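_Backbone structure tokens_
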Amino acid sequence: MNQSELEDLIRRSLDEFYQRRIKKLSELKLQNVLRKKNPYLLRAMGVEKASEIVEEILKAFMSSSDESIFGDAFFETVAKLSSGGVVAPSEGVDVALETDTVYKAIAVKSGPSIFNASQAKRQDQEFRSLGSRLLKLHKRFDPLLGHGYGRRFADPTKDRSYRIRSGQAFWEELTGDPDFYVKLIELMRDYPQQHRLLFKEEWDRATNRFELDFLNNFGNPDGSIHWEKLVRYNSGKDQVKWIGRK
């Protein structure tokens, strides 16, 4: 893949990333997000402005969501197309690279902190399951967990069947180019800035929707926050009626 082809791939992957971000934000409902937010922490932080609560909620949600969306829309797409691989025929595995003697199965994740213990165990089970189904190929099975960024480098252990490569090591293994990981950020050019304005417009609309809904449901007549009603909505056994858009 030459530089022009790579830049085009990066541009298309960023297009997909922002389309998914904007869609996620436009469909987001305050009543759903609030049920997963810690009202005690908000109160303990001394927050008293609806707008401040809304900003906190949106930032926390999108920060978590963005990591997942970027991994799927950007890192996974770039890994598959830059390596010449194909979509792997198994859940939990994203890219497959096959030679005459080796079948390499790759799971692509954003960064090395993406897994907890149960997710790591499940990933190992998915690799082992695929490896069992491929025994008839009589090829060496090479399962790899790759991270788009980070510095983790680990070989299989008695409890983990797959290798782990992050950042430069991962991209170099896929492409043979030790500078590929740097090119990924350099060749973004000004594409993020081109998308940022449209995302900001959707962000402002979501902020306005959330603030209006929050005040309608948890605002006192004097403008203060009705914390008791908020915690009842979030944690009470009885359902609190929601005022406004569903």
